């Protein structure tokens, strides 16, 4: 039996709640025809037809090819309109921006990367604005008037600010204001690894997974905790900041001011610094070729920054002994961190990603071995640990999901706000 018509309205003017519900049902494909959508939501055919008409005029829903059901009239399928609108996503990692434009189903239709000259907030913002401007110019379709931005560090999603990114020594970077001022697009910020986790949950290794943990490893480390597709933010958006979980109270000082945080042992920067220090002390490694001969042996701090974590992982995959040692040491702490999360949250799956996690090498296997040693056995027995599936644009795609989640309000805003709906401002996450 279909549910009672608890949300039924007698007026012909659709409200935002019912319209979002129709858009959602059509979007996930759980009902295709107008009649099936009406049954699914417990709304009248008249109401559904009014709402679908509105969604079609907004370019959000389209009629697809007719199909024949038995001997009756052919039905007409409804689907998201994949031709009129594009959703923008951007993500910053490893000194470059990744940009994507997706259709309403989240399929990437255009992508681009842009190297950033400099590692300070001004270079970060200038390249974001100029890169987006150029990227948008090449998109012929309509653009939903917002951009999802996967940013490093602790992000205040309400105010559009990077509160702090300790791996980069940044504080209070007003990303939203810069983008809105320069481009007239609403900026929907999200931590870059939380964005990647969302993308894996919807389109990659986390599809159909009830309880998912995503661990992103780059110059910093952070995670996404996702239950049934819903991202856990915490009270102030810091849920998932596992890079600052303390592993050793007498360990090295972290950029956050505490000692022995996970990311001082296991980030890509930490791997590169460890490799450089050991080459400096006379160890032989293929990674020595990464160091500029112009940099003297006394400038060890400068030498450290010359080996990227990705290079260490690639060298480890090729069998370089020193690189393997550095990766194994990082994996020890990552495995310990993952074990503590597995014991605490009992997830179905842990996905390892970020620029370092995506390198095809021994890291994920080593993390799994360490986690097996330290996690509560009952929780470890049921968890799968694997590498992310979505590649370099995963963070930008996840950021674009923030736009897709607000497509109704954004399409209304883009079509000059003619409504008939009660439309709240696009929400956060
Ligand atoms: Zn820290």
Topology, element by element:
Elements: H1 16-28, H2 34-41, H3 45-57, E1 61-67, E2 75-80, E3 85-93, E4 96-102, E5 108-115, H4 121-137, E6 142-151, E7 154-156, E8 161-165, E9 170-174, H5 175-183, E10 186-191, H6 192-203, E11 211-217, E12 221-227, E13 230-231, H7 262-266, H8 268-280, H9 300-304, H10 309-317, H11 321-345, E14 349-353, H12 354-357, H13 363-374, H14 377-381, E15 384-387, H15 394-404, H16 407-414
Parallel strand pairs: 3-6, 6-10, 11-14, 14-15
Antiparallel strand pairs: 1-2, 3-4, 4-5, 7-8, 8-9, 11-12, 12-13
Helix pairs in contact: 1-3, 2-3, 4-5, 6-15, 8-10, 8-11, 10-11, 11-13
The structure holds zinc ion (ZN).
Residues 166, 244, 254, 256, 258, 261 line the site of zinc ion.
Structure write-up:
The chain has about 425 residues and is an alpha/beta fold. The protein folds into three domains: about 15-80, Arc Repressor Mutant, subunit A; about 85-195 and about 395-415, Nucleotidyltransferase, domain 5, CATH 3.30.420; about 210-390, ATPase, nucleotide binding domain (Nucleotidyltransferase, domain 5). The chain has helices spanning about 15-30, 35-40, 45-55, 120-135, 175-185, 190-205, 260-265, 270-280, 300-305, 310-315, 320-345, 355, 365-375, 375-380, 395-405, 405-415; strands spanning about 60-65, 75-80, 85-95, 95-100, 110-115, 140-150, 155, 160-165, 170-175, 185-190, 210-215, 220-225, 230, 350-355, 385. The protein has a five-stranded mixed sheet with strand order 5-4-3-6-10. The chain has a five-stranded mixed sheet with strand order 13-12-11-14-15, with helices on both faces. Strands 7-8-9 form a three-stranded antiparallel sheet. Helix 6 (about 190-205) crosses helix 15 (about 395-405) and helix 8 (about 270-280) packs antiparallel against helix 11 (about 320-345). The chain is globular and about 80 Å long.
């Amino acid at each position: 039996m279909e549910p009672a018509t608890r949300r039924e309205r007698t007026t012909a003017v659709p409200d935002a709640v019912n319209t979002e519900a129709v858009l959602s049902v059509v979007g996930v494909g759980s009902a295709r025809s107008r009649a099936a959508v009406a049954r699914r939501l417990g709304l009248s055919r008249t109401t559904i037809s009014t709402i679908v008409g509105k969604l079609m005029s907004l370019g959000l829903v389209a009629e697809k090819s007719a199909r024949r059901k038995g001997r009756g009239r052919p039905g007409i399928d409804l689907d998201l309109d994949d031709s009129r609108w594009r959703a923008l996503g951007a993500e910053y990692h490893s000194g470059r921006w990744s940009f994507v434009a997706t259709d309403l189903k989240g399929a990437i239709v255009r992508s681009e990367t842009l190297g950033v000259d400099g590692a300070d907030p001004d270079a970060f913002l200038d390249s974001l604005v100029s890169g987006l401007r150029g990227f948008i110019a090449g998109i012929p379709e309509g653009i939903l008037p917002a951009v999802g931005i996967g940013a490093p560090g602790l992000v205040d999603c309400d105010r559009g600010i990077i509160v702090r990114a300790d791996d980069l020594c940044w504080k209070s970077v007003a990303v939203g204001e810069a983008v809105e001022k320069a481009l007239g697009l609403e900026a929907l910020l999200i931590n870059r690894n939380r964005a990647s986790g969302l993308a894996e949950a919807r389109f990659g290794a986390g599809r159909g997974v009830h309880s998912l943990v995503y661990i992103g490893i780059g110059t910093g480390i952070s995670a996404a905790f996702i239950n049934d597709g819903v991202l856990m933010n915490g009270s102030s958006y810091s849920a998932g900041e596992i890079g600052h979980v303390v592993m050793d109270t007498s360990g090295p000082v972290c950029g956050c001011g505490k000692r022995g945080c996970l990311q001082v042992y296991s980030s890509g920067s930490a791997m590169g610094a460890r490799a450089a220090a050991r080459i400096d002390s006379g160890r032989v490694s293929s990674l020595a070729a990464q160091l500029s001969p112009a940099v003297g042996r006394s400038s060890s701090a400068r030498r450290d920054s010359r080996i990227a974590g990705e290079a260490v992982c690639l060298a480890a995959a090729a069998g370089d002994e020193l690189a393997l040692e550095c990766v194994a040491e990082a994996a020890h702490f990552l495995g310990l961190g993952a074990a503590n999360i597995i014991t605490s949250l009992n997830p179905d799956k842990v996905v390892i990603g970020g620029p370092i996690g995506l390198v095809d090498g021994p890291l994920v296997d080593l993390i799994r071995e360490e986690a097996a040693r330290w996690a509560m056995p009952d929780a470890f027995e049921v968890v799968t640990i694997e590498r992310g599936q979505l590649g370099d644009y995963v963070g930008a795609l996840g950021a674009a999901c923030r736009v897709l989640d607000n497509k109704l309000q954004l399409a209304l805003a883009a079509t000059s706000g003619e409504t008939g709906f009660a439309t709240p401002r696009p929400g956060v996450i």
